[in-house]
Amino acid sequence: MIMRSYQLYHYTIPMDSQVVLRNRFLKQREGLLVHVKCGEHEGWGEIAPLPEYSAETLEQALVQARAWLEDWSALRCPCEKMSLTGLYPSVAFGLSCAMAELSGKLGEAMNTHSAPLCYGDPDELYAKLDKIEGEKVAKIKVGLYEANRDGLIADMFLEAIPDLQLRLDANRVWTLEKARQFAKYVKPEHRARIQFIEEPCKTPQLSLEFARETGIALAWDESVREPHSDVQKNEWVRAIVIKPTLIGSLERCVELVEQAHAQGMLAVISSSIESSFGLTQLARIAAQYTPKTTPGLDTLDLMQTQLVRPWKGSSLPIAGLESEFITAL
Question: How many other CB atoms are there within 10 angstroms of residue 98's CB atom?
Fold first, then answer.
C-alpha cells in the first residue's frame, strides 16, 4: 500500500506600496503552498487567488483545497486519480501543478526571458530594456491614466527603440471613444509594432471595432477566462493571454494553448502576481508548451522577498519555509 500525504502553508509577502489592482492598493500578496507526497514522490503547487480578479477568496480556496486533499490522501491505489472539475481556478491550477510535479509531467526547463512590465515610470522600462539581449518585447499597463497620455507614452517608446515590440494591457477599461483617443497619439507607422493590446474596450465587440478602425492587433485575456470559452480565429486577434491562476487547471491551460497554436495564434503564459515560487512553475509551463513565445512574468519586483524557490537573476532575499512570511497550516 502506497501512502499519500499533504501539507499546506500560508504565505504573506509585503508588496511595493504603489501596486494598484483596479481600484485598490495591494499592500501584501497572500497565498498557499501545497506539498503532496505519494510514496517516494512529491510535488508542489501554489494557490493564490488574485484580489479584484479572482472570484474566490483565499479563505474559500483554503477550504476547498483542504477538502480535495483530504479525499486525495485517502486514496490507496497508486493509479487512482481525482478530478479537478468544479474547483475554483486558483485551486485547480495549484493542485494540478502539484500533481504534475508528483508524476514527473512538468518539465524542469524554464523560460525566464520575460517581457518587462512598466507600471508608469518610463525610465524604469528603459533600464530594463537595456539589459535584454535579442528580441525586445515590453509590456505597459494602460488605462490607469488618461488615454491620450497612454498613447503618447507608447508612441515615445516605439519612436525611441526601433526594434521594440510592445504589448499593452487595458483590462477592458476604455469606452470605444477613449480607445480612439489612445490610438490618435500612436503614429500609424508605429502601430504594427504594437504586438497586441489586451481587450482595450469594455466588450469584445467594441475591441474588435477598435482594431478594425486602427489596425492595432488584439489579444484576448478576460474572454479566455469565461466559462466554456474556446479560441476563435479572427483576423484582428493575434494572441491569447493565459493567466493560469485565473483560468484553472494545467490541463485546461494546455488545451487553450493547443487551440491557439492550431489557429496560428500566439499563446502567452502570464502572471497573476504569484510569488517567485509560482513564477518558476509558470516559467516551466512556458518552456514546455510555448517555447517560442516570450511569457509575461515580470512581476517579482513588485514584492519585497522571494519565496522558497528563487527566480533567475533576482537579488531579492529568499524566504524559506521556516521564515516569518510562511505559516504551516
Answer: 27
Catalytic residue of the set 178, 187, 243, 292: 243
Helix axes 89-102, 250-262, angle to 10 degrees: 90
Give yes or no for a contact between 180 and 151, defined as CB atoms under 8 angstroms apart: no
* pLDDT-above-90 percentage for the chain: 69
Q: How many residues does the chain have?
A: 329
Cell numbers describing residue 100? 504534475
Q: Bridge-partner residues for 197, per DSSP?
A: 168, 218
Cell of 42: 512529491
* CA–CA gap between residue 49 and residue 40 (Å, rounded): 30
> What's residue 107's pLDDT?
94
- Output the pTM of the full model: 0.91
Residues 201 and 242: their CA atoms lie apart, in Å, by 19
Half-sphere exposure of 207 (CA within 13 A, CB side): 27
The catalytic residue among 141, 178, 184, 312 is: 141
Question: What single string gives the DSSP state of each residue in 152-207?
Answer: HHHHHHHHH-TTEEEEEE-TT-B-HHHHHHHHHTS-GGGGGGEEEEE--BSSHHHH
What DSSP character marks residue 309? Answer: B
> Does residue 128 carry a catalytic annotation?
no
**Grid coordinates representing 173?**
477599461
Q: What are phi and psi of 93, to 5 degrees?
A: -70, -50
Count of other CB atoms within 10 angstroms of residue 79: 6
CA distance 180 to 49: 33
Note the pLDDT tens digit of each residue in 290-321.
Answer: 999 999 998 898 899 999 999 998 999 999 99
Looking at the DSSP bridge assignments, the partners of residue 37 are 5, 42
